[in-house]
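Quick start: read one record
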Amino acid sequence: MLRPREGAEYSIGIYSGEVPWSISPDERIQNPVLTWRDVSDVPASMVADPFMICVNGIYYMFFEVVNLLNRKGEIGFATSNDGCTWSYGERVLKEPYHLSYPYVFEWEGEYFMIPEGSRGGGIKLYRADDFPRGWNRVAELLSGNRYADSSIFRYDSKWYIFTDSGAEPLNPKLSLYCADRLTGPWEEHPASPIVTDDPHVARPGGRVLVVDDIVIRFAQDVYPIYGSKVRAFEITELSSTNYVEREISSNPVLEAGGTEWRSGGMHHVDAHQTKEGGWLACVDGFYLRNSKKASS
C-alpha cells in the first residue's frame, strides 16, 4: 500500500451488512478497532490493509504495520473472540523490503499468505508452520515484475490471481493469472489484462469472494487520490479462456465519511460470512492529521 499524501493516518475498522457489497459501521463497535497506538512491539505510524481468518472460533487479523524505525511495512496480527473487540499480538513477518496487503487463506488444512512485496519483485507464497506465527516462504508464484495487491482465489477447481501490474500507483493495470495447482505453474489468462487506463476500477481492493458460485472482486478507486473509494464487481463468466464482469449498482462500497477516522478515504475490504448469515468485514480508512478526529 502507498500513502496518498503526507499527513495521512490509516486505521482499521469493522463493518457489517446483509451482503458484502452493502456494508456500514456496526453499532456494536467503536471504530477504529486498531490504530498505530495499539502496536506495542515497535514504534508505528499506521496500520492498514487488514485480512481476517477465523480459526477454531477465534478471529485472526493480519495487517500492514509501518515501522517508524525503518519506514518499512511489516506484517502484524491481532485477535478477537467476537470480531468486534480486538487485541494486538505482534509483528510476525518482515523482509528487507516493504510489505503490505497480507492476503491470508486456508488450503487443505494449512495456512498461507501472499503479502505484497512489490519492491522485492514477484509474488511470493508463505506458509505458517506455527499459526499465527512462523511464516516461511515456500514458493514464488510469479517472478520479475513488481506486482501490487495480489488477490488469490479458487473457483471451479482452478486457482486465479488478480494483481496490479501497472508501472505507477495512479495508473494501475489489472492482470489475471491462473493455475491448476497453488504452487503453479502460473500463466497469464487469455483475457488479461482485464482493465487498463482506468484508475477507478483496476487496482485490487481486498479479498475476492466466491459465494454460492458468485464471484465478487473489489477494486480500489485511486482517483483523484490514492485510497479514495472501494468498488465491487460481479464476475459473470470465468473460465480458462473467458472473462466477463459487471459493476454492482450499489457502488461505491466504501468511501470517505464526514470528519471521522475515515474522512480522507477508504481503500480496502475483507468480508466474511458469519454463522448467522450476515457479513462481517474488516476495512481501513484514513484522515489527514490536521483534520478533526472522531469515531464511527
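DSSP finds no helices and 23 strands in the chain.
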